[in-house]
Design goal:
- By secondary structure, the protein is α/β, with parallel strands linked by helices.
- The chain has 2 domains: about 170 residues, Rossmann fold, CATH 3.40.50; about 130 residues, Rossmann fold, CATH 3.40.50.
- Helices cover about 40% and strands about 15% of the residues.
- A 9-stranded mixed sheet has the order 2-1-13-7-6-5-3-4-15, sandwiched between helices. It has a 4-stranded parallel sheet with strand order 9-8-10-11, sandwiched between helices. Strands 12-14 form a two-stranded antiparallel sheet.
- The longest helix is centred in the first third of the chain and has 32 residues.
- It is elongated.
């Protein structure tokens, strides 16, 4: 018979042993996930505005991390790096470039009005013999076609985040922006179906001439078409925070009985403070068409009702993996990216933050040196 003291000592040792084993298992799982978390990524094939139709037993798109055979150099051209969305893309690309040992040079175009500057960057990357591939987040759906079409067979060119003519690139990494508008529009339509009391909203799509805005606008309008949601005001404008704050102020002045402010993330961020200043934070709901750190915080605090996320960090990582596959002569997906997920305060817990947002304090990185021999 074992004494109480001995039994207690045994239980303590056993608990410590089990704790050590559990910790080791957790660390091993975490290490495996950190090494290559692809298996858990919400990856989708896309075609046009919709998820691509695939057989039920079709395998997930190939996205495994592969080894670079040489010190490849990739040039990436962004629309800008002045908001947290593209900062998240940059974080994902930089982290994956370092993990793959691939060189990365980042250039930005100054904003969605900067087509001329973007064309200069793209032309320079295509002409540079040190650049092996190009990733381009275009500011215009067709504004680069004449530059990219002749280069398509000389070096891999892939679309990054923003849509472009499929004939001028080897592949696309991103989601259909139509889905971002359709998801939030569908949420509103389900909340206020046809036949229920009408609700009035102000709609802030973004800059009217930006290539991505038309897709979000069309998806949103399609989704609310047969509902009780009425668009009382539309305000177009660049997604700079100060511009969106001014647009929110104008709308609230002109429409004192609005039920929702709906649209781009900087608008949603600015609307929190403006509604609080006016004492209307409990009267007007805020809905965002994409996720940023400010929107993430607003969701957790209950100040923003709902948003969608297209996992921009993962898009950056996926882009680097796809471009490396192309450089190594492997097959790539025509159009691949994350799933588009509707998120509120509760649903945010389903997804790791570092799939969606860069860490606090992250600043843009413009150059990563290749490390593969």
């Amino acid at each position: 018979m074992i004494s109480n003291k001995m039994a207690s000592s045994y239980r303590c040792r056993a608990a410590r042993a089990l704790g050590t084993l559990a910790l080791a298992a957790l660390l091993a799982a975490a290490s495996a996930s950190a090494a290559d978390p692809t298996a858990a990524w919400p990856i989708e094939r896309w075609a046009g505005d919709q998820r691509a139709a695939t057989a039920a037993d079709a395998p997930a798109p190939a996205m495994a991390r592969i080894a670079a055979s040489r010190p490849w150099q990739v040039c990436a051209v962004y629309p800008h790096l002045k908001d947290s969305y593209w900062l998240a893309v940059n974080y994902g690309m930089v982290e994956e470039a370092r993990a793959l040992g691939v060189g990365l040079r980042v250039l930005e175009s100054g904003g969605y009005a900067g087509l001329a500057r973007q064309r200069e960057h793209v032309a320079g990357c295509l002409a540079d013999e040190r650049v092996d591939a190009l990733l381009v987040g275009t500011v215009s759906l067709a504004g680069l076609d004449d530059l990219l079409a002749p280069a398509r067979t000389r070096k891999p060119v892939l679309a990054l985040v923003n849509d472009i003519d499929a004939d001028v690139v080897r592949g696309k990494v991103g989601v259909p922006w139509y889905q971002l508008g359709a998801k939030i529009g569908g949420w509103l339509a389900a909340r206020h179906p046809a036949g229920s009391a009408p609700v009035d909203i102000a709609w802030f799509p973004g800059l009217e001439d930006a290539g991505w805005v038309d897709f979000i606008d069309r998806g949103f309008r399609d989704a609310i078409a047969d509902s009780a949601v009425r668009i009382a005001s539309v305000r177009w404008g660049d997604t700079g925070r100060s511009i969106q704050r001014r647009l929110v102020e104008e709308v609230l002045d002109a429409h004192p009985r609005l039920d929702y402010l709906v649209g781009n993330a900087p608008m949603a961020e600015a609307a929190i403070a403006e509604l609080r200043r006016r004492g209307r934070e409990d009267e007007v709901g805020i809905v965002s068409s994409y996720l940023t750190p400010g929107v993430h915080s607003g969701l957790l605090r209950g100040r923003i009702l709902v948003s969608v996320t297209d996992f921009p960090v993962l898009q950056g990582r996926m882009a680097m993996r796809q471009v490396l596959r192309a450089l190594e002569g492997l097959a790539i997906e025509p159009h691949v990216g994350p799933a588009v997920e509707l998120v509120d305060a509760a649903r945010l817990e389903r997804f790791p933050v570092d799939w969606m947002l860069p860490p606090a304090g992250f600043v843009p990185v413009y150059e990563v040196a290749p490390t593969r021999p």
